[in-house]
């Protein structure tokens, strides 16, 4: 589908960026569809089985790296980023340093970002249609097989750092990404130069050493994978390394020197809900399934379900202080209906008893 009249594409690209900023995005960039380098990197990663249980990473053939296979007719991609950091990183460090506190990755403290970004992208797409008439497009926010970071890098929104996250020189890495695949032949932006230099801070800080080499992450060791993507039992040798991280991990972002330029989000939906930024492990461990479903409504956290929520918190309690309250909380879960919960609670309780005996 094409506009009824050929527009001035350079002028349109400028307008798209202006409209995007007005809609709450911090930056808009445009790229072509050539992702050959990223495709090679992805295929190598898959060949090494570093995706773990994330079979969806290989389930769509080459659609992830060849946009026109996913959305026929795609000629250019509009990439957008939106800041999400809800609090000063000092607060995150405070939580991580407190073994009784529960650390939730900062992107998940508020409402699920998918709908918010998707709605904004749709408004942007509608503005384009109002300007030039009908055209072919499709908006995405983690909703299809897409190499969003590689696309954003080509669109000039930042560079992929050694931890595999996108870094912007003026905004750090605390932002979400979204895309509009379009059949418009828009002028593309210049890719950003990599500014990681000799820094290895993210590799050194990773709790589980999941960043096995610069730009190479083994998901099977990553805390985010273990607490979110993994459905079964967390490998025992990795449990002590999770600390009090119960949903995701931000260590590589917290240590990144470029995040000194990060700005707090102005979006109300990204602000913490239900005190998830400042709750104790025991408080969250006591949530019933109905409480979990109620308090995670509209949250990205809900996708892991109550059993994995309890699994993660049990491990965190086992890594904490051997207090009477922690032991009682874990003992109560030894009779939980789910074997997954019982097994992790039993492991955690044994850790506390062993530590108390020293």
From TrEMBL:
The keyword Cell division does not apply. Cob(II)alamin binds at residues 64, 142, 166, 177, 224, 249-250. One of its GO terms (cellular component) is cytoplasm. The keyword Amino-acid biosynthesis does not apply. [4Fe-4S] cluster 2 binds at residues 206, 222, 249, 252. It catalyses: epoxyqueuosine(34) in tRNA + AH2 = queuosine(34) in tRNA + A + H2O. The active site is at 142 (proton donor). Its cofactor is cob(II)alamin; [4Fe-4S] cluster. It holds the Pfam family QueG_DUF1730. Its main location: cytoplasm. InterPro entries: 4Fe4S_Fe-S-bd (IPR017896), 4Fe4S_Fe_S_CS (IPR017900), QueG (IPR004453), QueG_DUF1730 (IPR013542). Residues 184-216 form the 4Fe-4S ferredoxin-type domain. It is an enzyme of class 1 (oxidoreductase). One of its GO terms (molecular function) is cobalamin binding. One of its GO terms (biological process) is tRNA queuosine(34) biosynthetic process. Keywords: 4Fe-4S, Cobalamin, Cobalt, Cytoplasm, Iron, Iron-sulfur, Metal-binding, Oxidoreductase, Queuosine biosynthesis, tRNA processing. It is found in: Cytoplasm. Pathway: tRNA modification; tRNA-queuosine biosynthesis. Binds 2 [4Fe-4S] clusters per monomer. PANTHER family: EPOXYQUEUOSINE REDUCTASE. Belongs to the QueG family. Monomer. Catalyzes the conversion of epoxyqueuosine (oQ) to queuosine (Q), which is a hypermodified base found in the wobble positions of tRNA(Asp), tRNA(Asn), tRNA(His) and tRNA(Tyr). This is Epoxyqueuosine reductase. It comes from Methylomonas lenta. The lineage of its organism: Bacteria, Pseudomonadati, Pseudomonadota, Gammaproteobacteria, Methylococcales.
């Amino acid at each position: 589908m094409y506009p009824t009249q050929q527009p001035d594409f350079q002028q349109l690209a400028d307008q798209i960026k202006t409209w995007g900023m007005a809609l709450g995005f911090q930056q808009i960039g445009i790229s072509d569809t050539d992702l050959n380098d990223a495709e090679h990197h992805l295929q190598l990663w898959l060949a090494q089985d570093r995706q773990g249980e994330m079979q969806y990473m290989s389930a769509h053939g080459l659609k992830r790296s060849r946009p026109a296979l996913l959305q026929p007719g795609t000629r250019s991609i509009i990439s957008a980023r939106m800041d999400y950091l809800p609090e000063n990183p000092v607060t995150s460090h405070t939580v991580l340093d407190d073994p009784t506190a529960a650390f939730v990755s900062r992107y998940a403290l508020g409402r699920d970002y998918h709908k918010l970004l998707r709605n904004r992208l749709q408004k942007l797409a509608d503005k384009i249609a109002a300007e030039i008439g009908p055209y072919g497009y499709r908006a995405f926010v983690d909703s299809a097989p897409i190499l969003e970071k590689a696309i954003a890098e080509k669109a000039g929104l930042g560079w992929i750092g050694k931890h595999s996250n996108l870094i912007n020189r003026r905004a750090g890495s605390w932002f979400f990404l979204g895309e509009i695949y379009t059949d418009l032949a828009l002028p593309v932006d210049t890719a950003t130069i990599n500014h990681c230099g000799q820094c290895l801070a993210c590799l050194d800080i990773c709790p589980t050493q999941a960043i096995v080499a610069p730009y190479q992450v083994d998901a099977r060791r990553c805390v985010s994978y273990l607490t979110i993507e993994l459905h079964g039992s967390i490998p025992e040798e990795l449990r002590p390394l999770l600390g009090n991280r119960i949903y995701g991990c931000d260590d590589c972002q917290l240590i990144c020197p470029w995040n000194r330029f990060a700005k707090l989000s102005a979006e109300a939906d990204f602000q913490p809900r239900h005190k998830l930024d400042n709750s104790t492990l025991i408080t969250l461990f006591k949530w019933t399934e109905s409480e979990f479903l109620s308090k995670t409504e509209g949250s990205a956290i809900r996708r892991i379900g109550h059993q994995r929520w309890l699994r993660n918190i049990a491990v965190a309690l086992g890594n904490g202080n051997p207090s009477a309250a922690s032991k009682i909380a874990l003992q109560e879960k030894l009779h939980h209906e789910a074997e997954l919960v019982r097994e992790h609670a039993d492991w955690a309780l044994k850790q506390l008893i062993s530590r108390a005996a020293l």
